[in-house]
Amino acid sequence: MAGALEGQVAFITGAGSGLGEAAARRLAADGAIIVVNDLDGGRAARVAESVGGLAFVFDVADAQAFDAAVDEAVRQLGRLDIMVNNAGVAPRDVSSKTDRQIKNTVLRAEGRIDEMVPMNHLIDLSDEEWDRMLRIHLHGAFHGCRAALRHMQPARRGRIVNISSVLGLQPSAGAPHYSVAKAGIIALTRAVASEVAALGINVNAICPGYIDTPLLTPFSEILRAAIVTRIGKGRMGRPEELAEMVRFLVGPESTYCTGDVFSVSGGYMG
Ligand SMILES: NC(=O)c1ccc[n+]([C@@H]2O[C@H](COP(=O)([O-])OP(=O)(O)OC[C@H]3O[C@@H](n4cnc5c(N)ncnc54)[C@H](O)[C@@H]3O)[C@@H](O)[C@H]2O)c1
């Protein structure tokens, strides 16, 4: 029996690992032909081979490389139906201030606010790290939307899914650059969606909570445990659970969803 996405071409960035890989497998299972992007050539090749798709190795922050890859994929496969802008990185040094954070939490609970030590999350942020975060996430999503629309608009059909984060909805003091980049993706999604809604193209954003992928490798055990206490489900999500939302948003069940923002967070309380 033909799958719901039979013959459709899906371009997924950062699909060599985690959420992108799970989305690649999920869409391929429903018949989509997958174009796997990743910065890491080995990962891209492994996933592309296992889903029978193509691999394109480039940095999503590089607009020219993005355009060239999308154009080449369309040249080889004849169409582009789905773009998932997913590639991303975690903030650096995410666990280095956990001890200080825990001490401050205790002091706050005891009402000893005056004794709390400055966290210096913003002061310690370098220009390079700020730029890196915005270039990969926000510029990457912009490049992906633009490259995709150049093919989707003439065809008057298409689905774009941008991967934001719950931290784009509810910013984290610990990662202002990540939160800003992810909030920007939500604004980009809504702006683009309203422009192209009448052209048969749906653009939506997903805001994952904490999903157990290699992105969280730098998180210490104690930080992970602290995060889980703030998740209603009492555990992190699995990439496959997130991939179901991607599948919904690119499939025939979601024709009226556009400019919309969907959390998949297991009841994350922020
Ligand atoms: N895992 C989570 O808890 C979580 C939560 C919210 C949002 N997200 C977002 O989901 C997306 C996927 O994250 P993940 O958890 O699957 O991470 P991951 O590290 O497992 O996978 C990300 C992939 O993106 C690739 N990548 C990184 N920078 C790239 C670039 N500049 N160009 C091309 N590829 C690049 C990496 O090589 C990697 O294979 C990211 O945008 C992340 O911010 C993840």
Itemize the secondary structure elements and their pairings.
Layout: E1 9-12, H1 18-29, E2 33-38, H2 41-51, E3 54-57, H3 63-77, E4 82-85, H4 98-109, H5 127-155, E5 158-163, H6 166-169, H7 176-196, E6 201-208, H8 221-228, H9 239-250, E7 261-264
Parallel strand pairs: 1-2, 1-4, 2-3, 4-5, 5-6, 6-7
Helix pairs in contact: 1-9, 3-5, 5-7
The structure holds nicotinamide-adenine-dinucleotide (NAD).
Under CATH, the topology can be stated as Rossmann fold
Please give the CATH architecture: 3-Layer(aba) Sandwich
Distance between the termini: 43 Å
> What are the distinct ligands in this entry?
nicotinamide-adenine-dinucleotide
Structure summary, number of beta strands: 7
> N-to-C SSE series?
EHEHEHEHHEHHEHHE
**Largest sheet data:** 7 strands, parallel
In which range does the helix fraction lie?
40-55%
Tell me, what's the shape? elongated
- Runs in which pLDDT lies below 50 for 5 or more consecutive residues are none
Rg is 19 Å
Q: CATH superfamily, called what? A: NAD(P)-binding Rossmann-like Domain
Q: How do the strands line up in the largest sheet?
A: 3-2-1-4-5-6-7
* CATH class descriptor: Alpha Beta
Structure description:
The chain has helices at residues 18-29, 41-51, 63-77, 98-109, 127-155, 166-169, 176-196, 221-228, 239-250, and strands at 9-12, 33-38, 54-57, 82-85, 158-163, 201-208, 261-264. It has 270 residues and is an alpha/beta fold. It has one domain (9-91, 131-264): Rossmann fold. A 7-stranded parallel sheet has the order 3-2-1-4-5-6-7, sandwiched between helices. α1 links the parallel β1 and β2 (33-38). The chain is elongated. The mean pLDDT is 97. Bound molecules: nicotinamide-adenine-dinucleotide.
